[in-house]
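Objective 1b. Sequence-to-structure analysis of DUF5667 domain-containing protein.
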Amino acid sequence: MDDKFHTYLKKAGDEVTLSPSEHARMRGVLNAYMEMKPIRSASRASVWSTQWFFSMRPPAATLVLALFVSSAGVSYAAEGALPGDTLYTVKVSVNEPIAGALAVTSSAKAEWAMRVAGERIKEAATLAAEGRLSTETQDELQTSFETYSALAIQHIDEEADANPDTGGQSAVRFEARLSEYGRVLAEVGGAEYAADTLASAIRTQHDRIAGIRTRAEAKSATIASSGNAAVAASRMRDAAKHQLDDSVSLALHTAESFSSSSADVLERELQEAGTSIADGEKLLGRNSTQQEALEAFRGALTKAEKIGIFLQTSSAIHRRTGRIVSEPERTGKPSVASKAAAKLQNTLTAGEGPSITATMSVEQETQPSAFTKSSATGSIESDTSPDSSRQDSPRDFDSKSGRDENREEDSDGEDPLIRISAPSSLLP
């Protein structure tokens, strides 16, 4: 039947044709259309064109938009993930490689690698605070840390060869970060983590970057002897100011993660960093004291970096455990910045340097926490009431029982504390 039907259609098509007048009319219509719509030359579609999106039907466009939004949300949520979390793979396999691909210059690549290397130590410290840093996880974090640390040191070394001033700044910052990360890890984990392989790896990378910093500073000093000392000092000053601003801003947003004793230490050290910058600026205009100005700015940058690392790590621990980070009361030795300020004081003639204006209040019991800037004062003020302050005393970590003696509870059996001292030592 199908064959007969097709045969009938073919026969009808052979018999039914257009008349000559119909042919002429059809040709005229086609020619007119061709003149109105000429054939366009082939063009390559733009990779980033969004026209396809607006040409979609509403349901399809909504689906694509939801996909983009949800992907961005997942990527953002993965930033705080730890090993063992569902989104940790997104963090290390998507977020971090993309950020590295977007880093173009040696300086940007060094900063990216420093950040990722530090993230591994922060993850280890947070897991240690939670009591779930297994040997297998620690080994994996150590391997990743060593990989990215080596990459950061490589880029810093290349940067120091091309520009000793900026390379030296990067070396100072990474050296300070490694020093503070190692200190925090040891204090969170106790003696169990103070001498383990991860701590040893941190010290090894710290010594490597310290060597690069020394070489960069020697090369920079040689260049400075030809009359460019003020340029090197000015660059270090700008880096110190920028990092100090970042540390103050971070403190404003993380006050709930540390105790009143830590707030006192932070207050003192932020003031010292600001004083070092002020002293350096007074010496910067004199040819005979520009090297001393550079040392003051370097000390301020080191201190500001350490404060930033402490705040990042303590806030990460607080977010995961809900515990307030505290510091045991102790007698702090004079910092490098304060020593430099005392040494340079005799050469200062007049004027007051810039100060950091902030008012600090720390969460105690049920009182709300606030860390707000104040433009009316010229110093950092700690707003903690005597009746709400706690007397802190250091304790140890019992590795056999798995109990961290650095954690305490209040009278209601809640609000446990982890005693992590705020950075006070400025030794590299």
